[in-house]
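Let's inspect a concrete specimen:
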Amino acid sequence: MTVETENTVEQYLNHKLDIYCAENNETISKEDRSAFLECILKREPRNLGGLTALRGFIYQYYVTAYYVVEMIHSKEAWWNEVIFELLDDITLFSSSKIRFVQVKTVKQMGEDNHLTPYDLYNRKGGLSWLHTLFSNFSDFEVRLKDLNKLNVVPEFDFQFEIATNAQYDNTVLKAYSKNEKFNLSEEELHKDDSFKEKLNEPLKKRKKIEDKDVEYQVDFEELVGKNVEWCMKRFCIKHFGSFEELHRQIVGKLSDIIDTKNKVIQEAVAEYIFDQLILEVIMRTHRDDLTEDKKNSLVFTREEMSDLIKHWEQESRYSIHQAINSEVLKEEFNLQFNQLRQEIKNDWTQPQLRKELIETTYWLEEQLHEQYREKKDIYVYERFLNRLFFMRNSEIHIRNNNPRDSVYLLESLKHINFCLTLYNQKNTPLNNGKLLFKQGKNKDSDWTTFAFYNSRHQGDFNKMIRFLVGTIESCSYSQSIKNEYICFISHSKYDIANRYKFTNSSVIDSSDESNSSITDISKPVIFQRIATLEELSSSICDQQSEIESFNNDLILNAWNQSLKEQCE
C-alpha cells in the first residue's frame, strides 16, 4: 500500500468515525482510533474484535461480509450483487429484486440495548429510521443509473430491512422479525401495532421562499411514493446478534464452503478468508468521492467474490502448510538443541566450561525463537537451513528426506556454539545474505565475522570453495562486509584435519595447505575446514587440569593464532 493510499484510507475512516460518533452520540478515543487504523493498514483485521468501543462502527462491515458470504453459500440467495453504501448502508440486488438494508447498532451491554417501536419511528433529527429506509423507493431508479443498472423488469420486487445487534422482546416487533418472506399480511400484525398511525403523521420541513424560512408539511406517501401499508408489508427486522455471534455465523458459512473434512484446517481457512473479506470490504469502500466510472468498486458480485474466496482458500491452505512445516522444523531445532546440551553435559567434565557452552546454546536458541515468536521472520528456521546447506536466503521448506540431515544440523550447531562461546559478546547480524553469518567480540577488539556452510558431503573442499565464491560475489551482504571474515566449511568430501592442539602452555601447529585464502574476489574471505575448530574444541575438552573459563588468555591466544595464521 502506498503512502498516498494509506493517507486516503486514514482520512476516510476518520471521517466515517466522526459521522458514526455524531449519529450515535458516542466518543471514540484517539487510542482506539489509532488501534483501528493500525489493524487495517497493517492488514491484521483479527485484532478488530478487541476494540470494544468500535464494534458498532465495524458492525456494518460485518453485515456486508455476511451477505457476501450468504450470496455464495445459500441456494436460496436470490441476489447476485451486494452494494455498499451507494444506495443505502447495504443493498442486495438482482435484475428483478432489491433489498435495502440499514444497519442499526446499540451497545451490547446496558439497559438501552433493547429495540422498541419508538426507535423505528422516532423523528429526532428530521427523518425516522423507517422514513429514511423507505424513501429509497422514491429515487432508486435514478441511483441505479449511476451503476448502469437499466435492465430491470417492470414489476420490480422491493424489500426493506433493519439489520441490528439489538435485542427485542416487544410483541409488535416480533411480527416483523418473522417476516422473512417480506410479505407480511394484515392478519399477522399485532393488535397494538401503531406504525401506520405514527408514520402517517405529516413530516414538518422547512425551505426558503423569497428569503423567508417557511415551514411546510409532507405526508408519508408524498415522501416515499408508496403508502405505509405497502412499505410495512415488505419490511423485516433481522437480528444478527452480538459482534461475536455475527462473526461465528460468517465463519460457519465459510466453513461449509471449504472442501475439507479436517475440522481444524476448515476453521483456520475460514478465519483467514473472513479476515481477507473484511479487509476487502473496507479497502474497496474507503472513498466516498468516487467518480461515476469507479462506483462499481462498491459492488461485490457473486462471480467475483466466489473467485476471490477460492483464491483466499488456496492462499490460506498454502500458509497453513507452511506454518505446519515451520512448527515441525521449530520442534526439530528444539530437539537438536536439547541433544546438543545433553552431549555437552556428557562430554565436558569441567563445570565452568560446560556451563558457558550450555549458556551459548540457550542464546542461539532464543535468537531463532525470538524471531519466530515475535513474527519478525516466521521462516527463520527455513532460512537458517537454506543458508547452512544451500547458500541461499530462502523460506522454502526443506523436506527432511535424508535422515543424515538431522545429524548435519546437530553437528553444525555444535560448531557454531563452540565458536561463539569463545567470545564475550555474540551477535546474529540481521541481513539478507545468502550465507549463515555469526559474529563474536572480546574486550576492546572488533567484531569478528564468521560464515558457516555445511556441504553435506556433496563435493570436496576446493569444489565447495568455488561454489562459495560465486555465492559471495552475488551476495549484497557479503559485499558490504568491510573486513575479511572466516568461512568455515564442514562435511566436505575427503576432509583432512588441520591440527591446532591446545595445551596449557602452548599451541602445537601441524597445519597443511588445506585452508585457502581467496584474494581474487572483491572481499577477502578465509575459507577454513571446520577441523580447525573441532581440533581446538577436542584439545580443550581433553584437558585434565582445570580451566577457569573459555575467556582464558591461553585459549583465546590459541584461537586467535589459528585464525591469524590462516589469514596470512
In short: Residues 500 and 535 are 6 Å apart (CA to CA). The chain has 20 helices and 16 strands. Confidence is low (pLDDT under 50) at residues 496-514.
